[in-house]
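Dock iron/sulfur cluster; give full complex structure.
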Amino acid sequence: MKKSAKHKFFTKKLLDWFEKNDRPLPWKGEKNPYYIWLSEIILQQTRVEQGLPYFERFKATFPTVHDLANAPSDKVMKLWEGLGYYSRARNLHFTAKFISSELKGVFPNTHAAILDLKGVGPYTAAAIASFAFGLPHAVVDGNVFRVLSRIFGIETPIDTTIGKKEFNQLADILLEKKQPGVYNQAIMDFGATQCVPANPNCGVCPMQKKCTASEKNLINVLPIKSKKIKKRDRFFNYLVCRRADIVILNKRTQKDIWLNLYDFPLVETQKLLDEEELRQNEVFQKIVGNTSFTIKKVSKPFKQLLTHQKIVANFWEIELKSALLTNDSHFFEVKQKNINNFAFPKIVDLYFKDKSLYLELF
Ligand code: SF4
């Protein structure tokens, strides 16, 4: 399809806007594909402000792809702790090993080969290809869906095959092929700072004259999604078992959320249990077995929202008189002073950070 007058208007205004509003970020202008890849994986599902210190820490700890590849998995997970979506960290490590050993440390330089890397989807591949190698591939993510649907008044749901195709085609037409990296950075920044999800400041927007959403009062309607994600409620009764200065941890190795992170022995139920219900629970009985114990107290409920799940957890503080005799190989003993060496999901960190409990327990 040929570029229409509105297409040309959009691309020009966007690049003009970027010239005046370029945000200085440590990965901007970077040409080392390893650092670009690192920043793009960190920024998937993460705001720039939150991702920035993680990027700096990863770069300082693992200056080359070989350093990352040779690091123990626990070290990578610990550095990632608090950023969420932990499959990103696992894929990052996997891909670093692949590049380090199979590709002798040389980052792939074609769009197809970049897209083949584990943990790299179309958006990240387009970003790396355009920033590192100047290849003409347009990024399309939530920000881009929002900007394009509003300006061009597109009502096709963005979570359908037909919608994705339509937006991808439009993004390709709009891309400034002579400087794809600059264009991609511009549209990302425009979506992140100007055409934001709620209350965009249309009064100062250079696109307003030709923006369909602004003209037709559709800003709160666009972009359209066909279905809302329904969240599954899960209830975790965590057993914080300790004996003198020893705490029992659990390594999460099952195919479930938080793979390779650490938490406590867990009793998952249909609702949070009271003490009597906990004592009667079969899983609980299996965990404590014949060990003599005292339940000291229970925390308030903590909550964590994931994309498809809502987790509600409370933490039972249990004093053991002797070692747990359970044969669950994922449980192991740790000295309280070493607990910081492990990476925990956010909900466990919230429990640790709850000051009164923290002081009392650890
Ligand atoms: S006018 Fe408003 S809705 Fe339209 S692109 Fe600009 S900020 Fe977004």
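Observed: The longest strand covers residues 232-243.
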